[in-house]
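name: query_chain
kind: protein
chains: 1
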Amino acid sequence: MNINEQSISADKRHYYSSSQGPFHNANNILMFFGGGGRSEIVETMIRSLRMGDPIMSVCGERGSGKTMLSLVLADRLKHRYNIIRYDLPLMSTALMLRHLLIEICPRQADLISANQASEGASQALIKQGLECLTKALQGTSPGHKPYLLTVDSQADINPASLRLLKQLANTQAKDKPGIQIVLFKRAEAGDHTGKPSRLIASDSLSQPAEDHYWLRRLTLAEISDYLRHHMMLFDFNQRDVFTREMAYFIADRSEGVFRSINTLSRNAFMIAGLEDADCISMSHLLTAGLPAPVEEPDPHGFLWRHRSVVVGLLGGGVLASMAIAIALLV
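structure:
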């Protein structure tokens, strides 16, 4: 009996249209794709951290893989560092201080309460919290391992929080940084297309220097590799399900952004599952890639749109009134 590796058996089809299907696990570090320079960036950052660089940043547009890279970096260094991850949706100096106090100085965590962190703490409390953190960072850390803070928030890093982080990065513990910091910043598309560069900020707290890395979009060849890599990890028999024509279409519609690639591919699998298809095809991708219909505003009001119903109701009301009047007269 010949086995067609490109077919999907009936008992597996529901996996390709459910939440457990391919391209749903965007932040699973086991699915990390090192193409597009991501692997080189991770290795370079690890070397820089081991050499003692106290602060660096990674910039990328929405959906470029910043969160995935931060998780991979933390996993690679979890045995060497005390990892602290800041991924709260909001960003402020008080919130950052409370988060760090809980992780580094748990006995002084109530120095800034949750309400004060949300509504804003006084400058006296902020100064006191900073002094507490600085003293702790200059002492002995748990397991004699240095701290590594990764900031991966949806909110932009405001200037006050950035100054706080740079002050903490200046602390020294036995001639080594008391804490090393990696900032993941959202950038607009096309802000930067060059190679990683070492940048120095312009404010008075610009020391230490900051290594800057940019996550670029994937090329057509890298998108083909990404699709094969992802499918091979999900289902080895389906590793070549995406043809070159399909990869080219995905590259054109997604413009090389991870989030868009995942969304388009995931929707195509869902459409294939709804059609009970044995395999994803170009037609499924075409359907998934169609732009959403634009609904033009109706210049007429509600009564005009439903005029036939309104006329029917009025006519029925008139006839009913006439029937009641005739019945009363009789």
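note: The CA atoms of residues 196 and 213 lie 5 Å apart.
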